[in-house]
Write a structure and sequence with these properties.
The structure is a single chain. The protein is α/β, with parallel strands linked by helices. The protein folds into two domains: about 120 residues, Rossmann fold; about 180 residues, Dihydrodipicolinate Reductase, domain 2. It contains twelve helices and 13 strands. The strands form two sheets. It has a seven-stranded mixed β-sheet with strand order 12-11-7-10-9-8-13. The chain has a six-stranded parallel β-sheet with strand order 3-2-1-4-5-6, sandwiched between helices. It is globular. It starts with a strand and ends in a 7-residue tail after the last strand. About 45% of the residues are buried. Keywords: Oxidoreductase. This is Gfo/Idh/MocA family oxidoreductase. Belongs to the Gfo/Idh/MocA family.
Length: about 350
Amino acid sequence: MRIGLIGTGRIGTFHSTALQRHPEVHALIVADADVGRAAGLAARIGAASAAAVDDVFTGSGRSGPVDAVVITAATSAHAELIGKAARAGLPVFCEKPIALDLPGTLAALGEVEAAGTVLQLGFQRRFDAGYAAAREAVRSGRLGRLHTVRAMTSDPAPPPAAYLPLSGGLYRDCLVHDFDMVRWVTGREVTEVYATGSDAGPAMFREADDVDTAAAVLTLDDGALVTATATRCNGAGYDVRMELAGEDDQIAVGFDDRTPLSSAEPSGPPPPDKPWPGFLERFAPAYEAELAAFVDVVRGERTNPCDGREALQALRIAEACELSRRERRSVRVAEIAGG
């Protein structure tokens, strides 16, 4: 299989290395708006070649045609690149989000559906062993009736200031992963949200009209309650967890010997020696697994594990939370277009 990878930043570099190792990927063509940067990455990992972005879709240039495309470019380019792949008849894996707003997301999905091509979105937590075990515990009935879910994502340090205006905000950029997990693990839909946020941290968040810390209460369609929190300022380390409590049992995802959490109890466990420093380290096996799944999808060996419509539903929850924060009211997800 020949795969074109577009975007040579941190996640693009990580994905290119994983694809280069995959036994079914016989050629990896690396592309970027900066062809020199693409050539540099191709040389470092031993990829087949580097190419201009448009050459990936047309099959022109020395690289030749590809069988599928992996998009790890800047978020602002995702929708356009997804459209180009659809028009070229190419299956595509794209890091989330599809676009930074609903109209852009719906337009890109429309192109994919009109072309009848494949779009798999990069919600890597669906491939994490802990989240998969939690899903099985819920779906098997082991926990009994689920009544409370607590989800959280805490980054160890803020991103660069220049990133914030392009990120879509804390709900769309960060908590959207938790929203996807709430749906995927529980099998329920979110019907209503109430969200708030704080910009009391670094000034760059206020300047970008964003928040550095956020919290939301979500109501599921069976009446279960979810709290979802996120922050960009968790100096102890990268902390991603989900707790699910039922009438019979409860389970926690992300609680291990690297969780950046110290017990205040005299007999509690000691603080971790090596807390998780970031998302690539924490979810490295999941990232590799989602790309392996995409290769299987392209080969016709499995169904799409996270299509564009699944990603849209997580984005609608994020949009509802942002609306709730700004208008200081409860918002029903049905108010958000695209359902």
